[in-house]
Amino acid sequence: MNKRFLALITILLTYFLIVFGGDVASSNSGMGCGPEWPMCNGEVVPSLRGATLIEYLHRVIGALLGFLSLLLFIKILRSKLGLITRLVSFTMIGLLTVQVLLGAVVVIRDLPSIIIMIHLLIAMLFMGCLIWIWRYPYLDGKEQFYQVHHDQKIIIFHLNILACLILFTLGFGAYIKHETYGLACGWLGCRQSFFPGTTPEALQSIHKGLAVVTALYILVVTFFAFSKRWGSAIKRRMLLCSFTVLFQLLVGVMVIITKLELPWAVFHLAIATALFAFVAEARVYAGNIPVKTGPAYLPKARDHGRRSF
């Protein structure tokens, strides 16, 4: 199994684990193994039913993810790639270590909201590192260096902001969910008035505000991609992000209307996670396109021996 394919498998497993973690939380199965880690209800393999089955499966999948990540890390070290690739791989394994420790804290401390929020954000950053490794064009060959064009820097700048906005929105969403503030306000205004009057309402409003700002920013960047002719590959990526974030807003409304029903809540997290992955992939792509000096344009990736998507 080569490094790129292994990285892709690890990304998909990470995505599934994040979404499954949302199901664990939404179904109140987080303490299915009791306040114990790594044991589950005092056993290595407990009686698998109900909340215990859900939480135990989450742990088993996490262990498999840890094994695949360590295997990818070893392959990268043995291939003697450049400094940047090694730094990303060390960051990846470092985030995984912190994630495992936080997972133990979450269980032992009986699901503290702030730790759950950090746990989710680190999982996103971990997935971002995996996406960087997967999409790095020189993972299987000699690294090349080229001049970064002005337009390329602008694209990278906007995508960095988008990634941060999505992370902040996800973090706030995780926190208010576990603090049971998810229904403090309706999908448009709050219960008593349009403006929030309590702390839960304020936090819920901040989450909704971040979601709207993120959606608008994505639409603006998509407009720039077409008006400034940033290249077909970037245009396709931004269109995908635009459709995803608009769909995410609609699902967010349904989450509130259905009063946090499990399928909608998990679906909401799944789309948000996919949106972050799309933006992260676009960021890695934009940061590794050899751009010619002169007229501002981004050539298609196939001109450089790479896939355009």
Structure description:
This protein is mainly alpha-helical and 309 residues long. The protein is built from eight helices and no strands. Helix 1 runs antiparallel to helix 4 and helix 4 packs antiparallel against helix 5 (150-178). The two termini are 22 Å apart.
Nutshell version of this structure?
This protein is mainly alpha-helical and 309 residues long. It is built from 8 helices and no strands. It is flat, with a radius of gyration of 21 Å.
For the structure shown, list the relevant keywords.
single chain, 309 residues, mainly alpha, 2 domains, 8 helices, 0% strand, flat, disordered C terminus
Layout of helices and strands, plus pairs?
Layout: H1 3-26, H2 50-79, H3 83-108, H4 113-135, H5 150-178, H6 199-227, H7 232-257, H8 262-286
Helix pairs in contact: 1-2, 1-4, 1-8, 2-3, 3-4, 4-5, 4-8, 5-6, 5-8, 6-7, 7-8
Based on Cα principal axes, name the global outline.
Answer: flat
**Tally of alpha and pi helices:** 8
Tell me about the biggest sheet? Answer: none
Element order: H for helix, E for strand: HHHHHHHH
Please indicate the count of domains: 2
